[in-house]
Amino acid sequence: MSNRTGKVIIVLLMLLRISMPVEAQEVSLIDSLRTKLEQVADTTRIDVLFILSMKYQHFKPDSAMYFAKQALKEAETVEYPKGQGDALISIGRLKRDKGNYSEALEDIFRSLKIYQSIADSIQIGNAFNDISIVYAYSGDYDKSLVYFEQALVIFQQTGNEKGVSQALNNIGLIYLEKNDLEKAEEYMLRSLSIKKKRNDLQDISSGYANLGSVMEQSGQKEKALHYYKQANDLFLQTNNKTGLASNYIAVARLELDVGNISQANNYALDALATAEEVDSKPFMEEASGLLVDIAEINEDYKAAFKYLKINSSMKDSLYNENNSRHLEELKAKFNEEENLREIALLKKDQEIQKANIRQKDILTYSLIVVIFLSLVILALVYVAYRVNKRKKEMLAFKNEKIRNQKEDLIRLNQDKDQLFSIISHDIKSPLNSLRGFSHLLINHIDKISQDEIKEMGSQINQSLENLNELLDNLLAWSTRQSGQAKLNIAEIELNELIGKNIALYNLTASFKQIRLVNDSEEHVVALADYNSVHTILRNLISNSLKFSYPNSEIVITAKQNKDYVSVTVKDDGVGMSEKVISKLFDLSKQKSQKGTSNEKGTGFGLVLCQQLVHENNGTIMVKSDVRMGSEFTFTLPAPPPNSPVVSHEAINSEA
Predict the structure, then answer these.
(1) What pLDDT digit, counting tens, does each position of 489-548 carry?
(2) Burial of 307 (0-12, 13-18, 19+ CB in 10 A)
(3) What would the DSSP string read from start to end of 345-396?
(4) Could you tell me the end-to-end alpha-carbon distance of the chain, in angstroms, rounded to an integer?
């Protein structure tokens, strides 16, 4: 997705903003609302919490999120649907401003369903508007335009001038992305006219910024700069830090384009600082990217390295929070629900029409036929009813069968989709970092200090270790999925295998000052595939190392029971909540997490462990509490009594 498209999506304004002309009035109103909050209760209090969330949105987003979540909690307690919908749409917009598009879309979907259930036309229009933004973000401009136009019709029908101005503005932005600059300017000027009539400074500022984008894209740079600076003054006046960060980036880009390097650098620095204040990852990524370009022009490679790290971090964070596959699934879900809703309305109309016709027929025949014919008709109706009922039962059975097949297909594809996601991100992300660092080393090594080179080397080494571990797991996984792997079940000595894995990770453990301890019983023997158990132990020990604190220990314990053996890997690390544990072995729900030293993990290894344990007729379980460490235990069958142990070397020689 282009930088300009990202800018357009973030600049799309939220229609429920309640704005005041100047910052002083805003502060006064906020103080008044906070005072009122202590004096009211129930639904009135929930409405005040929602308005406070909107007021804080663009200069204190954390406070805005607090008030929105409090409104949702209280609205759910008193079963206040309007309050729930308002709180959810506010939470969705705040998440969107931070670049967390998937979760934002889920919250807005929930708010739309609530608004549809209570027939709140204005808020339905607002929800359509916000959903359209996601379509525009993913490049589906035609579909986005359809929903924006639906929102415009709703606002026009309800006489909501603010909504009309916002919808016109957003339609103009879509035409800008489609490079139809004439239409883009036409819609934006219509929008700006309404905004000026309403004297809504927040919306006027965004109107000037969007017109600046049109002028910039058409090559009228002086006119674009004029609009951007008008927007800048109003963003400062209304304390709109989200809009200000976006506008600083636009001005910095223009100044850089015309060769004003110093001014471009100042505006880019202001943009980065402002974006950090409101925790807007998309703007932090864009501003840091500009600063990397400016630093290289100025031959300031220390600064280039600094901003390159910020830029890489933001790109990685945005990918994790905005998985494109998840977005496409949510869009498809919304389209399907909208289609089903329209079909249901159509069927309802048809049923009403059929009922009216049937009633008219019955009344007509009842006046002109004798009882005998009535009985015949009743008999025919009964037969028809039975036939129709049978058809419906068959159709329902067929639909249920199709639905079950669809669900099975979705489940079968989830693992494949997640595998592609891992390959596209967890391989591409470290490669992008390696490319950035190697660029600086190759082209500017004589101007980079030894400490910086050492730090780059450390990060390059970590990226390579992550790649190596991921490729090992992907190889094991793909072999299992293709059906090429065959288990060689034999009796194996677990102490020997645990010792080999401890030796494998001793160097990594020493870097973090972590002790690996084998506290197993002597001569613990399992009946399993040697390579499978080796892979399970490697992943569990590696996982514990990533999430353990320095100066701690990881204890591996193997115990012999009558019918089975158990192996436990226990650490005193960061631990996990019940919610995280519930998704731990589900590949479709896995999210990348960072270790105590910023090591990257996909969770893919744990899913592989579960599959290998099950293939070896064992079980795996987890005990964990946040900040109290984790304990992974898996079991394997025990061999019959007095059976000789087959070594790994013997297995290989027989193969």
Answers:
(1) 999 999 999 999 998 888 888 888 999 999 999 999 999 999 899 999 999 999 899 899
(2) buried
(3) HHHHHHHHHHHHHHHHHHHHHHHHS-HHHHHHHHHHHHHHHHHHHHHHHHHH
(4) 51
Q: If we measure between CA atoms, which residue out of 201, 139, 119 comes closest to residue 165?
A: 201
Q: What is the DSSP string of 573-589?
A: SS---HHHHHTTT-GGG
- The CA distances from residue 431 to 191, 420, 425, 460, 473, in Å, are 45, 16, 10, 9, 18
Q: Is the pLDDT of residue 255 over 50?
A: yes
CA 435-438-442 angle, to 5 degrees, is: 135
Provide CB contacts within 8 A for 25, sequence distance 6+.
none
12-63 pLDDT, tens digit each: 433 333 333 345 566 778 888 888 888 888 899 999 999 998 888 777 888 8
pLDDT in tens, 103-142: 888 898 899 899 999 989 888 888 888 888 767 776 778 8
Determine whether 66 is exposed, middle or buried from the number of CB atoms within 10 Å of its CB (0-12, 13-18, 19+): middle
User: What would the two tokens of residue 309 be?
Assistant: 């790290």
Question: Which tokens belong to 387?
Answer: 């036939």
Does the pLDDT of residue 652 top 50, yes or no?
no
Q: What is the DSSP letter of 522?
A: S
What is the residue-wise DSSP string for 419-473? Answer: HHHHIIIIIHHHHHHHHHHHHHHHHHGGGS-HHHHHHHHHHHHHHHHHHHHHHHH
Amino acid at 399: N
* C-alpha R_g of the chain: 31
Of the candidates 131, 109, 439, the one whose C-alpha atom is nearest the C-alpha of residue 293 is 439
pLDDT at 418 over 80: no
User: How far apart (Å, rounded) are the C-alpha atoms in residues 7 and 217?
Assistant: 13
State how far the Cα of 318 lies from the Cα of 100, in Å rounded to an integer: 7
Tally of CB atoms within 10 A around 255: 22
